[in-house]
Write a sequence for this structure.
């Protein structure tokens, strides 16, 4: 899954990236790295300039004739931008990377029926399942999509050539292709992304007016459950509104279980030996465990048979950064990293997960660079 | 907060640990490390033997006369075990570490009224906010409690000497003392631990019957939200049942917001421009962000609002060192540094945390020295 710049690009011709935020700039970096000619476009000249300075591509020219347009615009304007690009470049295949696929498609189809002149044989929506907490071009990474699922939502109208073009672009970004119709995609992301976002926000919202003493007892569990609650409200309102029915379906199913839990707790409040109440609680926690077990490992493949390399890291500023740089320089692909730090100890233990075949070489490389790697 | 074996123990006399699971054995290890005489007791001879072999203490003797008894038994039997220990050792102070404090206390008070002969001046319940995914004595660590909050829930009945004894024991385990009455404690953990556990389980439970394709799209957000869903159902049913009313209160408040979200989504399903619906969604996500902001930092201190200065660092040997030197020369006090390095990119991004007041000056100083600092 690693981006190998030496491999020839599958994408032929110029790629125009409209929207040089996190996703657009990351795709542009990956494509440029493969030698693809990438044109950058954004409503913000600053975002465009940063993307260019990061090496993501070039500014537009008069004689541009893109073969592919990648639209990475906010969800509420994506259909409009896709339509404009389809009309402006009559030979180009157009895709978008918005996190909801059904709504924009419906808007485009309505527009095609109404206005005519919108050639949907050249449109294939897509959605790379990647992101970071850091947004904008500054957060972009050439390997943001490496090994991550990239959904390609082919329509009935789309030409086989257009679908192949978008699939090639996803592969050139290092992603793992997932073919999935728009409706199925939207139900899936409601389940694995949109409803969990709502749940995390609802749990975190309870803390707003909590006593200081109570939030002072917070531990890692609460931090994990609520991490994604620190998200952009306006962007998320757009996403949820754009996928309203599937998200509501998931949340209604969740509410039915929540009602059961509340009923069981109230019954136990009245009578600590209330018949069936403990059973209802056991069932909900057990169901959660069963659901949790279905989540695949970090890169989408079957969970984990990684080897763990343990490194002693002095507790000084910059040491962890130096370690990460050295891991990168060794050529090993870091799958996961955990830091075990016991307070008051002058060192921490970094646990680095890599593919088993890479572990020994990584250990040798790190020892060579002066790190203590306990055997 | 640090465990310093050289510091003399505050705890005087023998400590009897009843229940050599994760918490009991960890406390025993910490106390033994300080030179305290620790006696281990468990219904499982195997758990007891493992704890002893780990160096957590010794087996009981005929002539034991403990000054303190630490009960680390499952929540549904903790009151019973505390009562038995109070009666068996008429001089000992008894504490427990169960995650719910009001219920066991009520049971003990009822029992004292009914049976007499139960001396609650010697009982002080407590709750160390620490844990690991690995349970049992094998998961025990001498520094499990280091720097973690340890709630001491003094009652009206408890003698000042008993309270002081339990506080001393918590300090000897390296914990940060938090004095909090039982009822307040139970409301706090309902908010920061029990309700989040239910929410995580409910989100994860939705995945049980999801199509493979859908769970294949899972990302880090879902993994974080549902991490604690992989918990022991029987244990959690006990905990939730033991704190029924406070957990139900939190979940009912959560359900009210959930109902608002579902109503907004259904309104948007009917009419994508439904009045007020997007506003309701924005509010819930924004409230979640505000709640999330209240969670203290990793080591329990107030969340320090550092400003982050981002600098583009060429991927060449010595550049990071030069950057750090330039940061130092600017006079800014570097609080933390992270390096974001994407494979195959010719640059890395250094994220430098400084006090907000220092950020602008640092950015100017770095630009002056030729660094690229994206605005």
């Amino acid at each position: 899954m690693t981006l190998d710049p030496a491999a020839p690009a599958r994408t032929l011709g110029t790629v125009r990236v409209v929207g040089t935020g996190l996703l657009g700039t990351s795709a542009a970096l990956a494509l440029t790295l493969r030698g693809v000619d990438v044109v950058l476009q954004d409503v913000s000249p600053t975002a465009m300039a940063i993307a260019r300075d990061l090496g993501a591509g070039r500014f537009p020219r008069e004689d541009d004739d893109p073969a592919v347009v990648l639209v990475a615009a906010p969800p509420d304007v994506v259909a409009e931008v896709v339509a404009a690009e389809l009309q402006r470049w009559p030979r180009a295949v157009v895709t978008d990377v918005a996190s909801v696929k059904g709504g924009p498609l419906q808007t485009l189809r309505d527009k095609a029926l109404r206005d005519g002149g919108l050639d949907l044989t050249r449109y294939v929506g897509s959605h790379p399942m990647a992101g970071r907490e850091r947004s904008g071009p500054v957060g972009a990474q050439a390997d943001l999509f490496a090994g991550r699922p990239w959904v390609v939502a082919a329509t009935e109208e789309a030409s086989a050539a257009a679908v192949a073009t978008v699939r090639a672009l996803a592969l050139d970004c290092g992603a793992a292709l997932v073919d999935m119709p728009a409706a199925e995609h939207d139900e899936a992301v409601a389940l694995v992304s949109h409803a969990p976002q709502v749940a995390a926000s609802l749990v975190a919202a309870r803390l707003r007016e909590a006593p200081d003493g109570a939030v002072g007892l917070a531990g890692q569990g609460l931090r994990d459950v609520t991490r994604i609650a620190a998200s952009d409200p306006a962007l998320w309102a757009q996403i949820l509104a754009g996928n309203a029915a599937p998200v509501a379906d998931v949340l209604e199913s969740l509410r039915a279980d929540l009602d059961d839990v509340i009923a069981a707790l109230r019954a136990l409040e009245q009578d600590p030996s209330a018949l069936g109440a403990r059973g209802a609680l056991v069932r909900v926690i057990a169901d959660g465990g069963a659901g949790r077990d279905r989540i695949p490992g970090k890169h989408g493949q079957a969970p984990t048979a990684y080897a763990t390399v343990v490194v002693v890291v002095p507790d000084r500023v910059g040491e962890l950064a130096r370690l990460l740089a050295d891991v990168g320089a060794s050529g090993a692909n870091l799958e996961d990293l955990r830091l075990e730090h016991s307070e008051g100890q002058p060192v921490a233990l970094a646990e680095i997960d890599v593919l088993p075949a890479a572990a020994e070489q990584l250990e040798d490389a790190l020892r060579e660079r002066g790190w203590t790697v306990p055997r």
Q: What stands out?
A: DSSP finds 13 helices and ten strands in chain B. Residues 299-303 of chain B have pLDDT under 50 and may be disordered. The first strand of chain B starts at residue 15 and ends at 18. The two ends of chain B are 40 Å apart (CA to CA).
